[in-house]
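Hey, resending since the last one bounced:
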Amino acid sequence: FQQRRKQLLTSTLSKMMKNMKRGIPNLFKEGTKQLSGLEQTVVRNCVACKGLCDITRTSFGPNGMNKMIMNHLGKLFVTSDTATIMKELEVEHPAAKLIVMSATMQETEVGDGSNFVVIFGGELMAKAEELITMGLHPNEILSGYTKAYHKCLEILNELSVENYEPEQFFSNDVLLRAVKTPIASKQFGCENFLAPLVAEACLTVMPRNPANFNVDNIRVVKVLGSSLQQSEVIRGMAIPRDIFGGVRRVENAKIAIYNCSISAADTETKGTVLIESAEELVNYSLGEEREIERHIKAIKDSGASVVVTGGSIDDMAEHYIEKYGLMAVKVVSKFDLRRLAKAVKAKPAVALGPLSPEDLGFCSLVYVRDVGSQKLNVFQQDSEDHCGLATILLRASTSNILNDVERAIDDGVNTVKAMTKDARFVPGAGAVEIELARRLSQFAKLNSGLDQYAIEKFAEAFEVFPRTLAESAGLSPMDIVSQLYAEHEKGHANYGVDIENGGVGDALALGIKDILYAKSQGIRLVMDAVLTILRVDQIIMAKAAGGPKIRKPDGHWDDDD
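The structure tokens again:
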């Protein structure tokens, strides 16, 4: 035993000595990768973030290009929406993932401006790479970026040109001007049609206290066919589903909503019934029929004229619903059932039976409507009644167009939500970015340390936005940026890129303005990510865990079925 122990100890010591000679890589498990030093960590991170920025940069602005993305499940996306692109790309690089997380948080917090975050983050990292090549230490870059970041937020607050009071949120013109720019950035050319739809829908559900505005109160129902110009706003809720029974239209409807199925009650435990004659069989069925009829009659006597259920409706229940002249609607989604209850101010019941008048909902008109080949069940409120829900009915020729228009509408609705937090606006079309670049460049000259170079590069990073707008419009980026600087030096702080006339112009006169909250929040989020990435001096990657690989779909996605 002592001899065996001595042999094991000698063997272990010899292995340790060999590992010590090899250096630190064998400190970790086999397969672990380790990168350190400026070239391998900071510069590589900068290149990765710059590559991510190059993907989405061409999608920025009204003339932004679409990306065709196919995810791991084989689903095709054709969109210029950065939030969707980031969600489906499945970025693996750890530094680029931080930028993606910032863009995702921007989409969650504000609902718009995710491309701003990705582009600005990638440009800041590209400028940091240039500074490192010049010989600056990452800590000097961090110091300069931090100073520029705080100064940038100060300047941004000074550039506000419009500020709306809460009572102005009930004006259709104010909402229309607010949502036009974000919609135009996604659906350029359709903003004059879509913006009034979004403004009307937001105005329909606007609560007395605008701070309580909820984006979930505006639904979008997409129906294939016809053209985008056939889209409309419905005051209430539309469910793409046919009804049960022959009653197709009910005015001044009292609505009973149930979470349970409308059918004969089932026993909790299994049981056996012995039937010895035909008479017993008939009586057994009659008992179920009487029970169902009693429930339906009680619902009718309570004053209800429309029955909505989240469960199933069996044939016997459908027969008695038809007999007593009720309209029956089935809502598959429990979320839609809750929204409908909120829209008609009803309290859903968990058990079948009559409801009190306080629990019944009210709707001015419930009817079934044919939209193309789709049956649409509409719960519509009159203009006099306050409606807690609005539905935008979208029509288009393909599902990709419908999905892209829905994203543009989401951006418009989220802009109204952001207004309830901070209703200040700044000039759009790259005007505010050029003014920030100009003022930060002046600020950099007031600093005497090496961090002045970082502040200067931070200012230059803002030039990417007007440059991209000019590129996507087919204009000369250098000429446009030079013209913008010249106009801003003259005191024309509202001048931005005029893509329609091919030059520069007053963004406010052109009706282009961005909400300040989206800009400030985007700058905060991207700076958190950039400063975190620049502080990294070592990357250690463990060996990936094994497991079965996801099976690839057979054939090519473009092949005919």
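Residues 278-301 form the longest helix (24 residues).

Sorry for the duplicate.
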